[in-house]
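Quick one, T. Sequence first:
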Amino acid sequence: MDNGRVVGVLLFGGALLALIGIHLAEFLYPGYSVSGNYISDLGATCRATCIVYQPSAFIFNTSVILLGILIISSSFLIWKEFHSLIITALFGLSGLGAVGVGLFPETAGFLHVIVSFITFFSGALAAIAASRIVKAPFSYFSVLMGLASIFALVLYGLEIYMGLGPGGMERMIAYPILLWAIGFGGYMMSPQQTM
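Structure tokens:
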């Protein structure tokens, strides 16, 4: 199997695992609100005090760490296949950020905010940058999903939730990237996938 197809397998599997992990952790978290709770609350919920619900925390943190490891692995293969420093770096940063989200839940305070931002921002930029190595029409969707995530990140930072609540707006950042990664993974697994 060539490097491009392995990248596809890693990203498709990692993003799918993360989405399933998020939804399973939500199901097992008592009283979880997709609108009112942050995604990272699944790993640890910290307001005045910190509460960790198991097995939600284990499932969420493990799935995000595995996602990060698979993204980092794919970044090395992206370099070998495409020799693009910017795409490789953005994928690598996104993967490192995801590992950080799992290793440093909300109990880590501001460090968690930093690794979350790195994951979201570099993941969105990776989708945009990857549009250079895929054919249309998927290249257009890559840019669209990346920009949608960045736009939601700006709104989230400004605390403009558009009726979705903080958890809902955070999903408007994360889900376009995860869904793009599933699509990109499928694209990379197909024959004659790149330009």
